[in-house]
Amino acid sequence: MLLCFDKTLFFSSKDMTLKKRIYKWKYLTCKRSRITTERRTNMSMKIALSLRRKTLLVRLDGELDHHSSADIRDMVERAVTEQDVRNLIFDFSKLSFMDSSAIGMVIGRYKLMNALGGQVVLVCSDARMNKLIKMSGLTKLIKVYHDVDSAVKEVSEG
Questions:
Q1: CATH of the domain at 55
Q2: Average pLDDT for runs of 10 along the chain of length 158
Q3: Is 61 part of any domain?
Q4: Within 29-157, where are the H helices?
Q5: How far is CA 50 from CA 59, 120, 134, in A?
Q6: Contact present, 64 and 91 (Cβ < 8 Å)
Q7: From edge to edge, which strands make up the β-sheet containing 143-145?
Q8: Is residue 53 situated within a structural domain?
């Protein structure tokens, strides 16, 4: 079912005019307690958000740099405050590049969710990205899984 809101789930029309980047919304659907939105922030990053119960799944496809990190940070913070999110899953399975701002963004979301009594987990199946995540020290704070199903099971049990 396609929905139209005067204020969308993550960005109001006022917010969209303040942004200098061009955002292309692909779809916004709602099925029972699941809300999904997808958008392309630039030519190199595609972000898809799925909210099921109190768990937000952030699927990232492309290059995660400082521009897209800022967009993801804003989207996640808005979802957490407006939709009462308690668990956060970042799916890095389709990432081809990640810089230090991405690590900072993940640590910032970890601190936010930790303060709210929630948790953050990562999904990463690429050996190169796993090595980068491990070298950054993220694995000391955040659990990393090889598939989304394992991560969802972890946050639903925890």
A1: 3.30.750.24
A2: 32 37 37 45 75 90 89 89 90 92 94 93 93 92 94 85
A3: yes
A4: 66-83, 100-115, 127-136, 148-157
A5: 8, 15, 26
A6: no
A7: 24-31, 34-42, 45-52, 55-64, 87-98, 119-123, 143-145
A8: yes
The pLDDT assigned to 158 comes to: 63
How many domains does one find in the chain? 1
* pLDDT the model gives residue 43: 53
Q: Which of 85, 95, 86, 83 is closest to 133 using CA atoms? A: 95
Q: What is the pLDDT of residue 134?
A: 93
Q: Of 34, 36, 70, whose CA–CA distance to 52 is shortest?
A: 34
Tokens (6 digits) for 114: 């930790």
Q: What pLDDT, on the 0 to 100 scale, is given for residue 154?
A: 87
C-alpha to C-alpha distance for 104 and 150, rounded to whole angstroms: 24
Name the one residue in this structure whose structure tokens are 């050996």.
127
Residue 146 within a domain: yes
Domain containing 96 equals 26-157
pLDDT tens string 90-122: 999 999 899 999 999 999 999 999 999 999 999
Question: Does any domain span residue 11?
Answer: no
